[in-house]
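Continued from yesterday's entry.
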Amino acid sequence: MTELSVESVRGETRDTTHRVVAAVCRADGSLIARSGDPEHVVIMRSAAKPFQAHPLAADGVIERYAVSPAELALACASHNSERRQVEIVGGWLRRIGCQESDLACGPHPALARDFTVPPPGGGNPEELAGPSPLASNCSGKHTGMLALARHHGWDTDGYQVSGHPVQQRVKRSLAAYAELPEHEIAEGVDGCGVVTFSLPLSRMARAFARFVDDDSRAAQAVVQAMTRHPEFVAGQWRLDTELMQAYPGRLLVKVGAEGVYGAALIDRGIGIALKVVDGHSRAAMAALMAVLDQLGLDPTPPASLRRFAELDVLNTRQERVGVMRPTGALEAL
């Protein structure tokens, strides 16, 4: 099988190679390209968030609690913990009659530490909130789940655990888009304490393709929230945000932990799922850029995005001592 990989090079020597498995599908499930085995099973991690947010739009939560597009985007987010992101989530949480102590997610250092790639010359970074449950990168998802529970009259206690009605409803949404029976989607626990899901890459890619191809009010509410407010889906100097800003209304992108990305070319009805096998998050950025390049993203990405395609390897003095770059190719089918 043809495979894509990402290699780190120092001087003239390859230091590390990160193998990439990927599937590219149309909404009808037809596989059009792959790297490695498209049936490789992956844990979606945060790439599941658009599907976890879908019931908010489908079940009337948006109308009941006047959820704004920015708040809905934050329900899909792995955000940077930027002050304005945290403040918006806090306002939404209070509006549904909950407080920070109701959030099941724990505090952690801001994702900006590991997932941002500043442009040449940098600039003034956005102010970040200190670690707290409200500043968790998943706080928007958790607030959305609490809102779903409130809307249906379900107990908010334990909303994050397997078997709770919130998690049953979310899994039903994902299963429909992946076209898999619910019992074939395995469950695990994500870093934020919520249920996450495992499925083959081909089904994950199909789910993203079907999601953006669905012209229902609910699906379009989520897609439009993400693509019109990408600054809330990730944040400053993040690949998800910058790609959606560069291709407004044409590209949907969602990172997952441990080297996972889900994406869709909206105007072409194509879904993408990839996993860097060893879980390297920065290698996943270069891998996604390579996949998009090989799919003929038009127009070609602006020069500012090339920094995600070939990432600097830095030493402890923040000096460039190497490069991380993709190699190999997708196999067209």
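--- second protein ---
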Amino acid sequence: MRILLGLTYYRPHVSGLTIYVERLAKALARRGHAVTVLTSRYSPELPAHETLGGVQVVRAPVVARLSKGVLMPTLGLLATRLAATHDAVSLHLPQFDASGIALRGRLFRKPTVLTYHCDLLLPPSPLNGLINRIVHFSNQLAATLADAIVAYTRDYAENSPLLSRYLSKVRVIPPPVEIAGADTGTVAEFRARHALNGHRVIGMAARLAAEKGVEHLLDALPTILDRHPETRVLFAGQYQNVLGEEKYARRLAPLFESYRDRWTFLGVLDAAQMAAFFRALDVLVVPSTNSTESFGLVQIESMLCGTPVVASNLPGVRQPVAMTGMGKVVPIADPPALADAVSAVLADRDSFRQSPENIAATFSPEAVAGEYERLFRELSRRKHWLYK
């Protein structure tokens, strides 16, 4: 099949959504499909066309930005051409342009599937309020036009203001998760490089963004340090110049300074470094605060490395722990409860271990791509019967 995937930001941009689509695209390509990604040329240094990991990437020029979104006047022309020449369309929301691409899928009678990764909730401001409303309307229109909607979990779908209105279209497909190997020597070298020996290690893997709830871990640290004095925190991910999060970073800067001997920013790590990072941790913390987080792929990555997780009791985000038993779920924005849960895991980490092989079987990119493939073929047969 010729499969068109659409999303706003693709590689080299780093986000959970981007990583999901990259893994899905490459897995579909490995299964013999011709895969094209239609995305934004969000940086002028990026080529308009290139091949990455067997996947054709087409980038539409960006003429302006609105908060975290982009305006791409030529996207419609590109979408029309590509939708006409592909057999299936896979759109990944939130994406302002999704409704227009979904309409083209409908007009060309191509199976059109939305994957709803999370809600879009921009920081409060008059402009962001307008953008939120426009994107919400576009998402609803796209959901109406789509043949099926993929959600990570039924839990998130039933609690999402958008997805709960389209449950008859929802198909649950777990997200694709994979983690590079890291032998004991590599992990030991990572621990030595960051002076972790003799310390308990808490990790976060995220962008420094308001919805990630970083301040709640900072507020929980005094209690954790009182119970486990030799504890360190490693933060993997972009922490400087995060688009739209400058004010949030300035607000937290004094707290980071007060814990400069306990809190280390690692920046963006490559795949091998992330594998060593997860294996060097005693616990990963996911203290997210709102529905812009729908699952937390890093939870499964951590679990595949044998590291338990403490996560917020958000729809979807609470599911990895519920599915595997590898950790604890805590109330949202509750530093005392977070401190108790982290301390409990640090005190008895081995009791939260599960088989990485069983987890991998559910979340491997190949298994997920197979689910998408079956969905595309089912929708193709349905459309063939409808229009014959």
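The chain has a mean pLDDT of 93. The radius of gyration is 21 Å. Will compare against the first tomorrow.
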